[in-house]
Write a structure and sequence with these properties.
By secondary structure, this protein is an alpha/beta fold. Helices cover 42% and strands 14% of the residues.
Length: 345
């Protein structure tokens, strides 16, 4: 392997106190933009379409593989495709594949091999073995097909990802080529989502956790307060008699209802302060019905929780809660901003 240079110790490197300034970054970002534009301008769309169609038509699983940084990108693209639920997709480590993991490949499966150079020894060793298992092979390389890209010759389909250069000072570190691989892979997956008419519900079924899942799955009924948690009162109740109900349920409001629990209006702690300031001692003689808001924003239990949050934040002014009513305007719950935030939305 030859002799490697002796490097300075980390302590010596720290003593130099290197800095990065905006004047250092600006030309690098400009160069990266030029390299990406070069890729977009020269990408063969017929090759890209053939790649997308091959993934769409795959009768079996779709595996992605690569070495080094290309392997990291391959893993990410595989995970994104798997999250759509259209096909079994996964990452196949090339060295592990050569030591037994290739058993996961069956006839009709697709194997996508990512390589900047198209000459990675590990992938060149894997390709004929995967072909012998009956896999359809696709290479994504930045080296053009030919003698300089032996991997393309070993595969059924090659997609050339045009690369003008790396912005690394030595032109070696894969800091542009991996960006191109990622952009290409993710864009093709977005095209597959459109081609398959992926619905929000289908997407949500594979993302049950995290903010994405909660945004797509949680409905108002999943996070609302109900039954004994509701701050209810009648319109004829005296305001001062309802202070305990107003403050004890943690909603900052009262839901004013009739005998059948039809919503009449809402009365908030803000309404209480304003009424006290305007009426003074006369507040002891006022009923909730006289001072409540009879045209509050409402929402249904089947609405998405994220829709409730949007409704709370909408003009003319934000609110902290929404009464939850059914088709007959009967109160069945209340959803609060605090409850949505606590649920992770």
């Amino acid at each position: 392997m030859g002799s490697l240079p002796v490097l300075a110790s980390p302590e010596c490197a720290r003593e130099r106190r290197a800095k990065v300034s905006t004047s250092d970054l600006a030309p690098l970002f400009s160069a990266q933009r030029r390299h990406l534009d070069h890729f977009f301008d020269r990408l063969d769309m017929s090759q890209a379409a053939a790649f997308a169609q091959a993934l769409l038509d795959a009768p079996g699983a779709v595996f992605f593989t690569g070495v080094g940084k290309s392997g990291i990108v391959a893993r990410k693209i595989a995970q994104t495709l798997a999250s759509l639920g259209f096909a079994r997709a996964g990452f196949l480590a090339p060295v592990d594949a050569l030591h037994g993991d290739i058993g996961a490949i069956f006839p009709g499966d697709v194997l996508v091999l990512l390589s900047k150079s198209g000459a990675s020894d590990e992938l060149l060793a894997l390709a004929p073995c995967a072909r012998a298992k009956g896999a359809y092979l696709i290479s994504l390389t930045s080296a053009a097909s030919g003698g300089d890209c032996p991997l393309s010759s070993a595969c059924d389909l090659n997609v050339h990802l045009p690369l003008q250069g790396e912005i690394c000072p030595f032109g070696l570190a894969p800091v542009t080529s991996t960006a191109i691989q990622m952009v290409f892979g993710d864009t093709v997956i977005a095209a597959i989502m459109e081609a398959r008419r992926l619905s929000r519900d289908q997407y949500a079924s594979n993302h049950p956790a995290g903010k994405i899942g909660k945004t797509l799955i949680f409905k108002v009924k999943d996070v609302m307060k109900k039954q004994n948690e509701l701050p209810l009162c009648k319109e004829g109740d005296m305001i001062m008699d309802q202070l305990t109900e107003l403050t004890s349920k943690g909603c900052g409001c009262l839901l004013v209802v009739d005998e059948e629990h039809h919503l009449i209006g809402t009365f908030t702690d803000g309404d209480l302060r304003r009424t006290l300031k305007a009426s003074g001692p006369a507040i002891f003689n006022l009923t909730v019905g006289e001072m409540c808001n009879r045209n509050p924003r409402t929402i249904t239990a089947e609405a998405m929780a994220v829709e409730a949050m949007e409704k709370m934040e909408s003009p003319p002014s934000p609110v902290q809660f929404l009464p939850v009513v059914d088709d007959n305007n009967i109160v069945c719950g209340i959803i609060t901003l605090h409850g949505l935030v606590s649920a992770g939305l």
